[in-house]
UniProtKB/TrEMBL annotation:
The species this protein was found in: Phytoactinopolyspora halotolerans
InterPro entries the UniProt entry points to: AB_hydrolase_1, AB_hydrolase_fold, AB_hydrolase_sf
Keywords: Hydrolase
Entry GO MF terms: hydrolase activity
Superkingdom, taxonomy of origin: Bacteria
GO cellular component: membrane
Protein name per its UniProtKB record: Alpha/beta hydrolase
Length: 265
């Protein structure tokens, strides 16, 4: 039986779209990535509802939520409004891509949060070049510079044609998307599961594949170093791409359910 319920929660004058998948267990807020919407969780939420109370939202400027200035604080305020209105007490948080970084900031602000799951949402490909491992891809510094510039240009072209989020909030959103959230994850005290994709997205231009190899190698290096010195961080690599939420919803649901259950046992 379909127990999905859609509604809006007001954060001041801003309507935030919410989707409940049923369930009466531990609450878990589900956060989509930049340019997406809450429907990204539709293949995962119903499975989670067997043991949890999953609630997905459209981030501001996305889906059917209202438009408002983007910042981490503003997005967190929206989540707080939803948690208060739906009486989500000590919710766990799971996020994909940008949603993973937002989940980290939720737990940083709310240390009572029992668990965080980040699905390939720890660091964007366009950050400091120190975050890459060019040797893993056989790249020189000059080649790395060129490919980072090429990737930035591709992201710029995509942003220029975006209807949601609107162009006037894209610059602020882009700054968030391109941030490195590993330092935030390191500061948390709650159990965190960092899920790393190991393959590139289909359709990636072939010339950019070495850049993504260098990116994933640098991310793996830094995540493993953090996990070795921070016992609350747990790492899992999966044989999938950044689109793992759509490629392997059953496995994603199992990872979230198992991790949250262990953290709240």
């Amino acid at each position: 039986m379909n127990t999905t319920t859609d509604m809006f929660v007001q954060n001041g004058q801003l309507p935030i779209a919410v989707r409940e998948y049923g369930g009466s267990g531990q609450p878990v807020i589900l956060l989509h990535g930049a340019g997406g919407d809450m429907s990204a969780w539709d293949s995962v939420g119903p499975t989670l509802a067997a043991g949890l109370r999953p609630v997905a939202i459209d981030l501001r400027g996305h889906g059917t939520s209202g438009d408002g200035p983007w910042s981490w604080d503003a997005a967190l305020s929206d989540l707080e409004a939803v948690a208060d209105e739906l009486d989500l007490r000590r919710p766990a948080v799971a996020g994909h891509s940008l949603g993973g970084s937002l989940a980290a900031r939720w737990a940083h602000r709310h240390p009572e949060c029992p668990a965080v799951v980040s699905l390939d949402g720890h660091r964007a490909p366009v950050t400091s070049q120190d975050n890459y491992d060019p040797e893993a891809a056989g790249l020189t510094t000059q080649e790395l510079d060129h490919l980072v510039t090429r990737l930035n240009a591709m992201f710029d072209a995509q942003a220029a044609t975006s209807n949601r989020p609107r162009a006037d909030m894209m610059e602020a959103l882009r700054a968030s998307v391109q941030s490195d959230s590993l330092p935030v994850f390191a500061e948390l005290t709650v159990p965190v599961l960092l899920v790393l994709a190991t393959r590139s997205m289909p359709g990636l231009p072939a010339e950019l594949e070495p850049l993504m190899v260098a990116f994933r190698a640098g991310l793996r290096r830094d995540v493993e170093a953090l996990a070795a010195s921070h016992s609350h961080l747990h790492v899992r690599e999966i044989d999938g791409t950044h689109g793992l939420l759509f490629e392997m919803p059953t496995e994603v649901a199992e990872m979230i359910s198992t991790f949250v259950a262990r953290a709240t046992a």
